[in-house]
Amino acid sequence: MTLFAEILWFPRQGSTTAREVDQLLIALLSVTGAVSLLVAALIIGFSIRYRRRSNAAPPAREASVFLETIWTAIPMAIFFWFFLWGARVYFHAYRPPDDARVVYVTAKQWMWKFQHQDGQREINELHVPVGQPVKLILTSEDVIHSFYVPEFRIHMDVLPGRYTSMWFEATQPETFKLLCSQYCGTNHAGMTGTVVAMKPSDFEEWLRSRAEGSLALQGRKAFLKFRCLSCHSADGQSRAPLLENVFGKRIPLRDGGTALADEDYIRESILNPRAKVVAGYEPIMPTFQGQVTEAEIIELIAFIRALGTGQTPPRVEDFPPPADTPPIVSKEASK
Q1: Per DSSP, which regions of 117-173 are E strands?
Q2: Which positions ≥6 away from 212 have C-beta within 8 Å?
Q3: Is the peptide bond before 110 cis (omega within 30 degrees of 0)?
Q4: What does DSSP assign to residue 188?
Q5: pLDDT tens digits, residue range 287-311?
Q6: Alpha helices in the chain (DSSP H)
Q7: Is the Cβ–Cβ distance between 110 and 191 less than 8 Å?
Q8: Which terminus, N or C, of the chain has the lesser number of Cβ atoms within 10 Å?
Q9: Cα–Cα distances in Å, from 111 out to 192, 194, 321?
Q10: How far is CA 242 from CA 49, 185, 239, 273, in A?
Q11: Are 292 and 267 in contact (CB under 8 A)?
Q12: pLDDT, tens digit, for every residue of 2-17?
């Protein structure tokens, strides 16, 4: 199979997904190639044997139900087999394991910015451990980009204003090319990077050498900076929902519906808080559009994701905002 892949100029296999995708593709090429050769051989053979027409009338023949059943059932079984195989590969490729390491990716003309949950930041270079699944949560600061690593057989559009996700598991220590496969502007061809797959021990050493404080800790600072604690506090008089253990839960809304408290919901609640108001609360939260950066949104999401029971400070006055805190601009005042 490896020799066949090299003959077909397949790129290297760098992940578990790449191996599954290549196996499916090679099987499809093998079956369709064999059928094509069989059909071509039959056409050539019949053309030679029956190249001259006989003057005698052709004998009458009855249709063979058995033969028609066979040539219908066998291709249908093969097609269903490939369909089930392809569905299995698809669902595996787009359903990350629960223990996947999360990395936030922000695309920007013309660079890739990465933020690890341990606080490490990278530009145009992503370090990951071999043998451990890595989930990427992607967004864009400007236009549509596409995250593409050929050796991993992974590709995902990166959209402004929302999050998309994908995952992979590197199988060998090596450096792989990262490309943007969506035309995104003048320097699109230069929007490249690398994915550095490392042995787990080397990766842990790299993490320690680049330690900056966890992403959740940075999010806590942003939580105080934007005075989120003024309303989302645990003082018993909160004007907004308590955010402890809320991530990943279904939230009842004021209009009678529900919403999943995931990355997209938290982002929307920060930038457009009146879109989905939690049941039992008034739509009084101001928008932070234009005040909070993409990096700070990611930090706030990490903080809320990690916020457990009893971890919200009980009193606002115990945690004054830093000196660089911007003024809160209400939606009405900004008009």
Answers
A1: 121-123, 125-129, 134-140, 145-149, 154-158, 164-168
A2: 119, 120, 121, 218
A3: yes
A4: G
A5: 888 888 888 888 888 888 888 776 6
A6: 2-7, 16-49, 65-94, 200-209, 215-225, 263-271, 294-306
A7: yes
A8: C
A9: 7, 11, 32
A10: 83, 42, 9, 15
A11: no
A12: 445 444 555 667 778 8
Indicate the angle between helix axes 294-306 and 215-225, nearest 10 degrees.
Answer: 110
249: left (phi over 0), alpha (psi -120 to 50) or beta: beta
Q: Which CATH class is domain 215-318?
A: mainly alpha
Phi and psi based region of residue 222 (left: phi greater than 0; alpha: psi -120 to 50; beta: remaining): alpha
- Please answer whether residues 17 and 154 qualify as being in contact, where contact means their C-beta atoms are separated by less than 8 angstroms: yes
Angle between helices 294-306 and 263-271 (to 10 degrees): 120
Q: Given this model, what pLDDT does residue 313 score? A: 59
Q: Beta partners for 192?
A: 179
Strand partners, 198: 129
CA atoms within 13 A of residue 175's CA, in its CB half-sphere = 5
What phi and psi values does residue 100 have, to the nearest 5 degrees?
Answer: -65, 140
The pair of three-digit structure tokens given for residue 40, joined into one six-digit string: 């071509």
The class level of CATH for 101-209 reads mainly beta
- Please check the confidence at residue 211 and state whether its pLDDT lies above 70: no
The answer to whether 43 touches 181, Cβ cutoff 8 Å, is: no
pLDDT for residue 333 is more than 90: no
Distances (CA, A) of 122 to 4, 58, 70, 79: 37, 77, 58, 44
Amino acid residing at 34: A
> Can you spell out the DSSP letters for 269-332?
HHH-TTSSPBTTS-S-PPP-TTTS-HHHHHHHHHHHHH--TT-S-S-GGGSPPPTTPPPP--TT
Domain ranges in the chain are 101-209, 215-318
Copy the structure tokens of residue 99: 């223990």
Tell me, yes or no, if the two domains 101-209 and 215-318 fold the same way: no
